[in-house]
Amino acid sequence: MVERLLIHAGAPKTATTFIQRGLQSNSELLAELGVYLPVTGRLELEPNAVSHHHLAWALISPGSYRRSPQGWPALAEELSHVDAPVVILSSEAFSRVASKSDGAALVADAAHELCPSVTIAYFVRNQLSLMNSLYGQRVKSLRMVESFDYHTDNRRSRRLFDYEALLKPWYTDASVDFQGVPFAGDRDVDPLEELLRAAGIDLGGRVLTHEADDVNSSLGPVGIEAARLLGSYLRGVFPDFDSEELAAKRLYRLSSSRAQTNGWCDESFWGWTPKTAQETVEYFSAANARFARDVWGSDWMLPMPVDRETSAVRLLDLDPPTIERIQRYVFSLANRFSGLRAEVIAS
Amino acid sequence: MTQLVIHTGMPLTGADLVRDQLVACREPLERAGVVLVARDGSKAWDRAVRDVLGGEVPRPLIRLSRRKQQEQSHTVLLSSESAARALVSMSNVTALRAFGRDHGLSTKVVLVVREQLELINEMYCNQVMRLETSASFASFVGETVASAGLELGDQFTALQDSPGIDVFAVPYSRFDGHVAAGVVLAAAGLSEEPALTSTMATATRGSASGSTALPGPVLVTALRLLHKRLTRLGVIRRRPTDQLLAAATVMRERARAEAWDDATFWGWSEELATSAQQHYRPGNEVFAARAWGTVWPDAAPARQQTRLDLPSEPPSRVSDVITMIHRVVDELTAAPPSSGAA
User: Fold this and answer.
1) Which one, out of A131, A281, B245, B334, has a CA that is 20 to 30 A from the CA of A138?
2) What does pTM read for this prediction?
3) pLDDT band at B103 (very low <50, low <70, confident <90, very high)
4) Is B245 at the interface with chain A, CB within 8 A?
5) Interface pTM (ipTM) of the complex?
6) SS3 of B208, please?
7) Quick check: A229 and B233 CB within 8 A?
8) How close A236 gets to chain B, by Cα (Å)?
9) What single-letter DSSP state applies at residue A161?
């Protein structure tokens, strides 16, 4: 009989991949502690990670999952044979569900169908780093080609970045135990350990193990410009290009790996200027204060890196050798994309 | 008394256009008593200026002065952009004055001057269009301002202060809506009528510079990227100028055919423009006070910077630009180096 359901709901860019891979690599240890990691709803593309994206997507597009073996009824069926006291679901896509109108209630309701005791853990990161990191991820995964300023100007008002608006339906829901975990990105802190601690799961002195994170390196300033140019070029050459298609997802892995080989992940990208950073901090200040008061019973505790020096480049300002490498990167990957599409069709 | 009129000016002040218009109305000018020193292109005119400043009478001038003395013609006209560069030097100004005195010529200089912000913007575009630079506009401005070559106050002090030489300054903006050669003639106190009669003058009336239109920001970006790639591949160093110009022309034609741009390039940010204006304004005012007894007549243009972020452009344009650069690079690297290669 499942006694408690823990949903790790995000946020994106708060070491979620690291946590999900950690869940997988520590599944035996967790099982010994009475934690069960459902098979239903896991993303097939990430076999080494416990990421229940399908369950989140099923809440966004229930029609597509009506008879799916990856949906909530299938999960209920799986859990009916489980007698571990704690079940963990992990997907940052739950934050996407929550960011939609009445989406947070959908998550809570679906969870309560399975188990009366629901804990939702959410890693809270300062918005400057979060937006910066999300931008890098979107560029890297070929979903976005616009400039950082465009991205932040157009997305700042999204609910994902307003923790009060996003998470209030959960932290004011008496039937949900909400845990807002401050995420500082500190390398000395194991985020999986943080998650388990927040959920009250005692490791009993046992040590978690983690695989090397070889795919998820963030792009540096040059890598950002190269990937933006690649994304734009692909859309020009293949007008039906869709970053969600399988060939594009495979290309993303190739391009990330190539960027890393080129040394374009060695530096960190930071698109804010002190001025734009300050404006953004002021924009979120009141909502952050209310969120912190309600959830932590304290002032907002995450430092805002307002004075961090901008670390971004413009394509045209790069030196000739780098421009040449970018051109080769764009051309070779665009050529590879044709092949990947053919492979996907063939398979 | 025969007078010598030298038309000159700052860079990009329509010198070629003025000269071409003058040559086109040579006969009406001669009928009006104005003789052009040289018949062909700019090199001959520049040579004539060098001769004058070197104390030598240019051969055409000898012939003319003999003939025209008999005909009692009064004006010999020289047009040379390079004269302006020479006449910033006190020794050259002295030489010109001596030349006039020795040959009994009254000497006039018509100097076309231009507001620097537009001028620098056009200079930058020209360098990019000739594949001479891939530098950013800001860095080009930094170098240009530091070189002090466009500062009016200091540049022409010797010329303006020289006794025996009358200097008539013409703001470049005065060419707008007028026949440039006519403006130059009128500035020297001559009749502009001969210049107004030529068909070329009619065709170019209202075109201030007479140069090709300025490029747009996408073309500038494409040419800068091309320059960087060619630099990396050693092509810029190895290939002769004509091949590089041909490559730039291919890009320019593609830009026109595919309508890459719907605006012309303007590199000045508000901050950079303010700083440059503060730099040039005192000299301009000094020059204007001396030349016209007024304040500097041309306001700096208040245009918005054409910022371009290539990856944010429409994808079809991005892919076209990148593909074209690739094609041009391929052709240049595959082509055999011509005998003119450095």
Assistant:
1) A281
2) 0.85
3) confident
4) no
5) 0.84
6) coil
7) no
8) 4
9) G
